[in-house]
Recover the amino acids of this structure.
């Protein structure tokens, strides 16, 4: 039971991460891989606020959302202004650079990690966390669905179709990109906050490039730019390694095997099914969207 | 009548290529001005300079007396510069109606914050945009295909959708980049009719067009451009008979 519940917590967290990353890369077409750093910023914000200031869990998770969102501006404002491709390069630097800073800051635990995050749920701990994580995941997915089906989603779609024509109609593409990036990053921060409370211990290494690869794989395999794709991708990629553990392989084989699986999945999907498991409908409200 | 558009000494060069050389031009409400000249004369570049696709090196551009030169592309559109594109640039994954709805009249849902805080006003604006869009499509006899994907309609219809999308703007200036290229039959008639109506309603219209009969039919006056310069401005008939024009056009 405990095992299932802890797996459900992870599924909830990664559905939030993959869906919010999909908003940025799939819907917004903004090629960044720095999603884990916003996950980390949410987690560390909660870590610091709860251990050093004893802030209420809800408030500190909200703070994690805000910090991740504000940090996203540091990346999006300079790099989106230049051009799309620069975002990818800057995002890598941004992620690795910030992680390096975290490693060298004593008050966040440095390289050895930040522990002692209080346990905020005393009874049925994993079940309560699973309920909260899954509840939030459902809310995020439904929220994104409403977003991309409405006028805002139409604007995002048009921006990707032809940005010049879009801007010449008086739409501010830069605003939209920065907003998408901020919302997606903020949601990753929320996932980070939950993560911190559940595991009560954070190290910078959890938020490295491997994490980027994991979330990216979920989105690509599930289906970029489709609402439910990343949900499928997240569930699949979390269950697959679990299934392998039942093979009772030694841990020295397990780690590399996981990396191998993610990589081969991406390559496989790239060739065989580039649209992912759940392809995005050409336009979600097909037929002109009469209501 | 006051000028809708006034250009004064506008210059632009890309490296060694001069696309606009001291362009001075004005356009009044209700006027339809033809822009003619050989390929590479700088006609489309002039549209790009006015609408803000790229900034001018020097000179001033004003819309109803308001300087545009420092405004970016999107802000000029909001200030009232509406344009079409030679290659239409429609939003290919969307329906005809949706293409128009991307160009709202008051930009609802532009910021996510407003979308969250002002759901009702966004819905109302969306309703208004739909009504306006359907009205425009009806005028163009396109309402029957409002739900069709823009890639599934005829070329002439696509050209009309490009114009319809620009007409979502209520601004005083309309720039049409080769609206008739490849268009014939019913779409041709509709295009002519709509442009005439828009001018009659008080818009200033500037048309780049190679179709001489369209220019002759529609324009009050025309400007002849070559190598980034305005060589002559006058009434259409005189200009079309001008010797310089024939020489430049036909390379004699």
């Amino acid at each position: 039971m405990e095992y299932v519940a802890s797996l459900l917590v992870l599924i909830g967290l990664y559905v939030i991460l993959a869906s919010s990353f999909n908003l940025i890369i799939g819907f917004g077409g903004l090629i960044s891989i720095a999603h884990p750093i916003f996950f980390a910023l949410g987690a560390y914000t909660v870590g610091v606020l709860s251990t050093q200031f004893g802030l209420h869990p809800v408030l500190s998770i909200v703070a994690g959302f805000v910090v991740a969102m504000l940090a996203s501006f540091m990346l999006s404002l300079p790099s989106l202004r230049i051009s799309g491709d620069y975002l990818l390069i800057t995002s890598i630097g941004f992620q690795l650079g910030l992680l390096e800073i975290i490693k060298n800051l004593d008050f966040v635990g440095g390289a050895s990690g930040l522990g002692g995050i209080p346990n905020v749920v005393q009874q049925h701990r994993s079940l309560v966390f699973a309920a909260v994580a899954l509840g939030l995941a459902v809310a995020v997915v439904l929220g994104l669905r409403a977003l991309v089906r409405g006028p805002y989603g139409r604007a995002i779609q048009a921006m990707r179709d032809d940005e010049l024509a879009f801007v010449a109609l008086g739409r501010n593409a830069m605003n939209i990109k920065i907003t998408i990036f901020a919302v997606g990053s903020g949601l990753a921060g929320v996932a980070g906050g939950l993560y911190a409370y559940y595991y009560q211990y954070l190290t910078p290494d959890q938020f490295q490039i491997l994490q980027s690869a994991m979330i990216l794989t979920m989105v690509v395999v599930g289906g970029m730019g489709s609402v439910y794709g990343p949900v499928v991708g997240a569930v699949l990629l979390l269950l697959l390694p679990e299934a392998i553990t039942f093979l009772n392989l030694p841990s020295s084989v397990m780690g590399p095997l996981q990396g191998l699986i993610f990589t081969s999945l991406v390559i496989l999907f790239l060739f065989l099914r580039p649209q992912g498991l759940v392809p995005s409908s050409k336009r979600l409200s097909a037929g002109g969207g009469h209501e | 009548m006051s000028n809708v558009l006034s250009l004064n000494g506008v210059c632009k060069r890309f490296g060694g290529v001069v696309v606009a050389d001291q362009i001075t031009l004005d356009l009044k409400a209700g006027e339809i001005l033809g822009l003619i000249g050989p390929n590479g004369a700088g006609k489309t570049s002039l549209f790009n300079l006015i609408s803000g696709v790229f900034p001018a090196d020097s000179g001033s551009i004003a819309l109803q007396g308001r300087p545009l030169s420092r405004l970016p592309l999107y802000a000029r559109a909001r200030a009232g510069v509406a344009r079409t594109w030679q290659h239409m640039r429609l939003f290919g994954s969307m329906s005809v109606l949706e293409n128009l709805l991307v160009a709202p009249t008051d930009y609802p849902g532009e910021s996510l914050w407003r979308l969250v805080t002002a759901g009702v006003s966004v819905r109302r604006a969306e309703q208004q945009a739909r009504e306006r869009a359907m009205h425009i499509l009806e005028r163009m006899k396109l309402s029957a295909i409002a739900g069709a994907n823009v890639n599934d309609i005829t070329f002439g219809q696509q050209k009309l959708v490009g114009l319809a999308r620009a007409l979502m703007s209520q601004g005083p200036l309309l720039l049409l980049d080769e609206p008739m290229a490849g268009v014939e039959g019913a779409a041709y008639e509709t295009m002519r009719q709509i442009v005439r109506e828009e001018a009659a309603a008080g818009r200033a219209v500037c048309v780049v067009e190679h179709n001489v009969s369209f220019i002759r039919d529609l324009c009050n006056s025309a400007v002849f451009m070559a190598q980034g310069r305005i060589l002559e401005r006058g009434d259409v008939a005189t200009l079309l008979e001008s010797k310089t024009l024939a020489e430049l056009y036909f390379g004699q």
